[in-house]
Amino acid sequence: MSIFDFTLEELEDYLVKNGFKKYNATQIIEWIYEKKVYDFNKMSNLSKKLISFLNENIRIEKLEVLQVEKSPLANKYLLRLNDNNKIECVLMNHDYGYSLCVSSQVGCNMGCSFCESGRLKKVRDLTLGELVSEVISVRDYEGVRIDSIVVMGIGEPFDNFINIKRFISVVTNNKMVGIGQRHLTISTCGLVPKIYEFADLETGVNLAISLHAPNNEIRDRIMKVNKAYKIEEVMAALDYYISKTNRRVTIEYIMLEGINDSDECARELSNLVKGKLMYVNLIPYNETSNFTMKRSNDFKIKSFYDILKSNNVNVTIRKEMGGNLSAACGQLRANAERL
Ligand code: SAH
Predict the structure, then answer these.
(1) Atom 14 of ligand 1 has which residue's CA nearest to it?
(2) What is the position in ligand 1's atom list of the atom closest to the CA of 116?
(3) Would you place residue 338 in the very low, low, confident or very high pLDDT band (cuts 50, 70, 90)?
(4) DSSP letter (8 states) at residue 77
(5) Would residue 329 show up in a list of annotated catalytic residues for this protein?
(6) What is the CATH number of the domain that holds 318?
(7) What are the tens digits of pLDDT across the range 3-19?
(8) Are 30 and 129 in a shared domain?
């Protein structure tokens, strides 16, 4: 068991069950998260008995950084898990601060036809400890303050919902990672029942949806999940999320040449989101050698953007931050594993 495997409440329960005091949990958490002391023996306000209990039962373990790819705006990290599986994290340097993109699973079962992570099937979910260690490991490796986190790396976070809920608790607890709810974003390909559950948590955590198509015909072709949950069901779940939280939803839309980038698609997409508390983020596709799909050209992206704008849709074109990195989701891991 790693110290990063506990929410605050879980650590309190665990210590109490083992004959220690509830407040010991807060003391330990302060050493770890605030003072960055990763050695129980140096936690001077803990009893000897507690220190030896911790040494016997709990590890303080960060993830080994196996490889780093650097570019001016983004660094990509290949991290090693205890069982030798590998995952990726991307640290982006925005003008408002550092944002970290974390993985939620080893591989992914959603099988989107354009995505490297999905080409490599899910091996397993990440544990809470591994999710939190991604943040702590990259933060300490670079010695930077991370201002926001997006769960947009390898994996489908809502397919690892229990740990994502616990991750939200650790990340947003100001005694722990201490990132405000509004600075945390979870991205899903649209697992509808989990969108409802997420809404019912009534947190201020942001939700992003990988829509990528304006109708079922196109979405069926590129996203396997659409066979289970149709666009209408996804949109209804988003309406529910908005009614519960009053938070703006991000609609992610990858621009794929000749597949979803026509003027007609732009008009259909406008009709889907118009008048709703949503904004569209157009994402230039990151080509990878394992798929034949191409990125729409800049002209096409701009005209798609203009149609959305003229329909009063809030829209931005995602800045490409890691063009020279193996930045397509899962690409660095795939290369490293020769998968
Ligand atoms: N499973 C979640 C989160 C991980 S994917 C989800 O689907 O939202 C994060 C985002 O990157 C998704 O929008 C995904 O569709 C997109 N993506 C995957 N491969 C990409 C590529 N090669 N270029 C650009 N975006 C990509």
Answers:
(1) 210
(2) 19
(3) low
(4) E
(5) yes
(6) 3.20.20.70
(7) 999 999 999 999 999 99
(8) no
Domain that holds residue 8: 3-57
Q: CB–CB of 252/219 below 8 Å?
A: no
Same structural domain for residues 27 and 161?
Answer: no
Query: In the annotation, is 88 catalytic?
Result: yes
Q: What is the full DSSP assignment across 106-162?
A: ES-SS--TT-HHHHS---EEPPHHHHHHHHHHHHHHHT--EEEEEE-SSS-GGGGHH
Residue listed under structure tokens 């140096």: 42
Distance 220 CA to ligand 1 centre (A): 16
Q: Are residues 191 and 325 in the same domain?
A: yes
- The average pLDDT across 41-58 equals 98
Pocket of ligand 1 (CB under 6 A): 110, 112, 114-115, 152, 156, 187-189, 210, 252, 254, 283, 285-286, 288, 328-329
- What is the distance between the alpha carbons of residues 334 and 150, in angstroms, rounded to a whole number? 21
Give the atom of ligand 1 at the shortest distance from the alpha carbon of 208.
8
How many domains are there within the chain? Answer: 2
Residue with tokens 């891991």: 333
